[in-house]
């Protein structure tokens, strides 16, 4: 894990509001809004095998030689092939959903070449070791955005939930000091675990005495809290024309649903 090497680049990124989050070794999402970047020499890393989730280790590395390289389960699986095209190259995603590798200062050396309407987008190192761009955002929790614990964490936790997943009572997602939990009484709550009282930042205010609830995300991006096998306790009510979406617990404490999948290194179908 390396840190940004170029002061001019840092100033540039700050000038343009890009939040680099050095030390984000176990992160695996880049956002268009508020913007984040994978900076020169930085790497994303994803490994849930210690938590008995049987996918291989994945990493995405913005190499100092300007090549953006994806590794999965020990092998190189994809690259932008931009070696030697510039110095201080970094990866961002823009408000049209296009991923761009730029060299110092702003010259693009690689683009994903798929654009969509203006909105908020997320670039994910996915659970299966592939890359995916999702958006625009179709739903967001109503709490105020804020900055998470600035301390870097090297513990991988899962903070993305995909369509076709079903999760029972318990921890749903965790990002640093933020945790989304489906409680035993069927209330879906977003907590700040840094506070003694575990402040609730957002909740569905749902209740069921049956202790059998679960959450699902439909392919069209609608999030549900259900119980009694399939009865709906809560729904997000926003949908998009999509067959695959992602719910992300972002670094600013907001839950956001992005869909459809606009670009990927390997289609699911
Ligand atoms: C990862 O590599 C190991 C050892 O080479 C192999 O047994 C395993 O099936 C691979 N996992 C995936 C998801 O490809
Ligand atoms: C990079 O080069 C490899 C090997 O030539 C090729 O298979 C791959 O498609 C290229 N990547 C991109 C993004 O074009
Ligand atoms: C994107 O489009 C440019 C210009 O047409 C082309 O040179 C480049 O190879 C394309 N990139 C990908 C990843 O397809
Ligand atoms: C995380 O970082 C700390 C301090 O650098 C180190 O002691 C610990 O072993 C690391 N844990 C993992 C799982 O890498
Ligand atoms: C979704 O719509 C239902 C029915 O109109 C409404 O009762 C519920 O409050 C809405 N949910 C949200 C999260 O807005
Ligand atoms: C759903 O997946 C199929 C198969 O890849 C694809 O052709 C189609 O465009 C997708 N539909 C939507 C609405 O995204």
TrEMBL record:
The keyword Nucleotide-binding does not apply. Residues 35-146, 152-269 form the Bulb-type lectin domain. Residues 1-25 form the signal peptide. One of its GO terms (biological process) is response to other organism. Keywords: Signal. This is Mannose-specific lectin 1-like. It comes from Phoenix dactylifera.
């Amino acid at each position: 894990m390396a840190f940004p090497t170029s002061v001019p680049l840092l100033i540039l990124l700050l000038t343009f509001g890009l939040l680099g989050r050095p030390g984000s070794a176990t992160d695996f999402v880049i956002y268009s809004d508020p913007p984040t970047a994978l900076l020169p020499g930085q790497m994303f890393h994803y490994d849930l095998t210690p938590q008995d989730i049987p996918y291989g280790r994945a990493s995405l590395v913005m190499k100092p030689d300007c090549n953006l390289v994806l590794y999965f389960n020990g092998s190189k699986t994809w690259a932008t092939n931009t070696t030697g095209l510039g110095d201080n190259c970094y990866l961002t995603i823009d408000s049209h959903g296009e991923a761009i590798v730029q060299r110092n200062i702003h010259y693009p050396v690689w683009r994903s070449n798929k654009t969509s309407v203006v909105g908020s987008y997320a670039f994910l190192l996915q659970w299966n070791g592939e890359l995916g761009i999702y958006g625009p955002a179709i739903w967001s929790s109503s709490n105020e955005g804020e900055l998470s614990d600035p301390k870097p964490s090297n513990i991988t936790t899962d903070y993305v939930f995909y369509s076709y997943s079903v999760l029972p009572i318990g921890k749903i997602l965790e990002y640093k000091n933020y945790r989304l939990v489906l409680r035993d009484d069927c209330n879906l709550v977003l907590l700040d675990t840094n506070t003694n009282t575990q402040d609730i930042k957002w909740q569905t205010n749902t209740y069921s005495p049956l202790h059998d609830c679960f959450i699902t995300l439909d392919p069209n991006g609608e999030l549900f809290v259900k119980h009694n096998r399939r009865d709906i306790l809560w729904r997000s009510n926003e949908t998009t024309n999509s067959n695959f979406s992602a719910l992300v617990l972002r670094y600013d404490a907001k839950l956001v649903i992005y869909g459809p999948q606009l670009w990927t290194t390997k289609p699911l179908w």
